[in-house]
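[Q] Does anyone have a clean structure-token version of this?
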Amino acid sequence: MASLAARARALPLSRTHSLQKSSRLLSTTWAVRQEATPNLGTVPPAKKPVGAFRGGIVGFLFGFSLASSLAAYRLLEEYKLASAALQASVEELQASTHKVSAHVRRIEAVEKDLKALSESSATKEDISRVRAEMKKLYDGLHVEFLDLRAHVWGIQEDVHALSKKNGTTVRLV
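[A] Here you go.
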């Protein structure tokens, strides 16, 4: 503390002294400047710089971590793009699967209808059998028609013959 008070008193003195000298020293008073500095020890020897080796390792690690993070970011972006493309193709595949399923259901319905129609429709044998029966019926009806015609013609001949014998006319209504 005493040294602080001495310094405070010597301050104006140092200013006049510093005006005389153009350089300013770290010590503020002449007495303090003249005081011997106590021996604080020897200056440690200068160490050889190892900064280049350390800087190389640190630079390598920094560059490696930067490159790794950049590669991870790019890989993540590519993964996102591939995932989005895969998701789009899955949705497209799902839509086409639904379309194919709908077509298969329609085909199955058509096959079911076709089977029902084929079971209810007539075969060639059935048609030929029905044709033969119809021919027999037609032939039978034709024969009956001819018989009936012959009978009517016979009746007409008889009526005509009777009308000539009696001289009367017969009117058919």
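[Q] Thanks! Anything notable?
[A] The mean pLDDT is 81.
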